[in-house]
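During the second year of the project, the team shifted from modelling isolated chains to modelling whole assemblies. The rationale, set out in the original proposal, was that interfaces cannot be judged from single-chain predictions alone. As a representative example for this report, we include one of the complexes processed in the last quarter. Its constituent sequences, exactly as entered into the pipeline, are reproduced here:
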Amino acid sequence: MSTQKAPAGMVDQGFRFGQAREFTIFAPIKQGGAARMRERFKTFAADDVSVINKVATVHDLRVVIFDNDSRLMFATTYDGGFEQYIKDFSTIMPDNIDRFFSEAEGYPGVRSPEIWNYIARHQVEAAAFYSAYPDVTVRNVWKGQRVLKAFQDLLDQAQS
Amino acid sequence: MTDIALPTQQLDDARERKIGVTMPTTDFPALDLSDIQATVLRPRPSPYKGEYIVLRVDDAAQGREMLRRVIPHVATADDSWTPALPGWLGIAFTFQGLQALGVSQASLDSFPEEFRQGMAARASILNDIGENAPAHWEHPFGTPDVHIALAIYAEDEEGLQSILSHARQAHQRLPRISVVYRMEFGELPEGRNPFGFKDGLHNPYVEGSSAPASPGYEQRLKAGEIIMGFPDELGEVAAGPEPEVLRRNGTFVAFRKFHTKVAAFRKYLRENASSPEEEELVAAKMVGRWRSGAPLVLAPERDDPELGADPRRNNNFSYEGDMRGLSCPFSSHLRRVNPRDALKNEFVAVNLHHFLRRGTNYGPPLPEGALEDDGKARGGVFLLIGAHLKQQFEFVQSQWVTDGNFIDHGTEQDPILGNNEGDGIFTVPKTPIRRRLHGLPRFVALRGGEYFFMPGLQALKWLAGKDTRRRPTAEANQLVPNQM
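Output from the structure prediction step:
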């Protein structure tokens, strides 16, 4: 909706290093939710990975369950510009995003207008943040890998 | 690379759920065209002559009096086809303008953040940097002096003068209403832009607008993407600004005044091509169309003036047969600002990023063949119109115009609109190897910009303190402008 607050947290908070951004959330987990999360993440691989790849701006992400299974940490490094796509992602793949947080207490769902308030309440800005390649995007890395492989193949062919 | 190859089924499933594909539908609400301003839904006349006027309001009561006088002359979307009409008047307000008219704080607070901040304050998000930065804008753009904008479109000088006289009468003997800016605009020969290209050939179709359907590539938008009060592409109806009477049939306008560096453009072509034909090809690759308006996708080798002049064909194309960009480069202006189906394999909901473009030109053309700048002001003013400034104008400007990551082009920017400072690059896909142009300067410089709210007619009356057709609700009473 148009009155929806901007992703204030993601835009204004969070460390920037070159074009790289960090985003970390600490949130309480529902009773018994930790076990359900672990079970769900066993099948994390194929489905979610392919969707996150498609987003093509997420360098890495991790989910940590701690404090006797009572809290979760969601931490990621992403490319600047991601914020602009939040509406796209929450439209195209709300279930994939919600899967990460479905056991989080009070999580309203990514399509809810309350989502920004939820993020603002639980986001914690990093005290320090480093990236080895701060100006290189996920797409740059993939392209670099493709080019490097093609180059090595060419050298292999030339010597055979 | 196999490790990042994706099962397309997944993407299709995701897309099926929502967006990306426009479902054919006939059950959309009819819009109340008599309440929506003509400037929003109707293409400007052609040929055209007009003027933009900016007013500052230093007294709310006088501001509302001015509004009461001007309202009868504001053209609505239903009557603008009347041949008798000599032209039309549109009116829009900045956040400061609404404040100056005495709109209550509760109502002001209910406007979207980007509108409340204004375009100048959004410069870092919009990548309005270097020569485009607000510090270089013409006065009064980017300052709190911009309150109300009048946009006047007419078919000729006589029509313009007749509307201008209405505008003048509107603030006669209201000493605390000042004209802080005026600029004239008008059509260039053959309806070309200052670079010599026919443009403005595409706009999405707003459901329920009963505009003559433009033949060709159909981009059908839910009315709520452009007009508040109706469901948008996500099925959501705008919940702000409040009260309802203020937002209903209203929309937002991103106003951009550009100066075009035509001599620099010609000089760059001369230096990067070895024949006049090649100059034309390089220019077309940057724009995405040939000078005639013929799209590269349909005419990859050379200009086709007949195609360019044919409204049934010049917009009737998609990128499906050009997914490698060999005809129309990924980085060309046309493909960036309106990717049509070019991004269909990416995770982006293209339908959330459309708006209506109303372009007008100003200044004399640079004489044919001139390679040195004559120092004259010339360029274009664009009204980019939509209900969601952030998802529409701001997204396109920050992601598609001033970045290249979305097309795997790193930080390469739009060759025409980008912030290139003599160090720009432009990639032209080609077999066996791509061509890359270097050393692009800035061809277009921003001279001013503002976010405006363009209300419907009932909302204008509400702002002026008049009765509305609807009975005022308790909510409306509470939010009514403070009487002074």
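Helices of chain A lie at 8-12, 33-42, 45-55, 86-92, 94-101, 115-122, 138-159. Strands of chain A lie at 16-17, 20-28, 58-66, 71-79.
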